[in-house]
Amino acid sequence: MACRGVLFALTEAERARLLACGGDEGVLALVGEVEEAWDEPWVCEVDKAWDALHRCLTDGRLEFGNGEFPLSHVILGGRPLYDGEDYVVCYVDPGEVRAVAAALEQVDEGRLRKRYAELDFEDYEGARGEEDLGYTVGFLPELQEFYRRAAEDGRAVVFTVDQ
Known about the structure:
By secondary structure, the chain is an alpha+beta fold.
């Protein structure tokens, strides 16, 4: 699997349908529709940097909802909506998106670089080093802009990645 992370800012109709799915099959079907539509202004690709980003914005572990809110909700926070092991789908409601957007505005490249250097990165699949750090930090501006737009439009956000 590719393990490429993508965030989608959902319309109100998509949000309502996602929360009403009631099971893994329905969640994956709706996520598939949203991915296929690929509404560019409402998509943020974080590729394989999602892992390091999550660790740097939380307590360093790769777990759901770890670290302190609101930065804990940027990638793997919020509510996991898929129970299987082959995919990750995490949902952040519109109110939390506003808090995430505000918190992300306070994060800069220097802070991410410092945090990356401090962490042990247990079970990290990336090739740790300056190249990986530069790759990871490079996604910060787009991530900040994505959450800002989603917050301004009152959208929920869903993070997806195949495993």
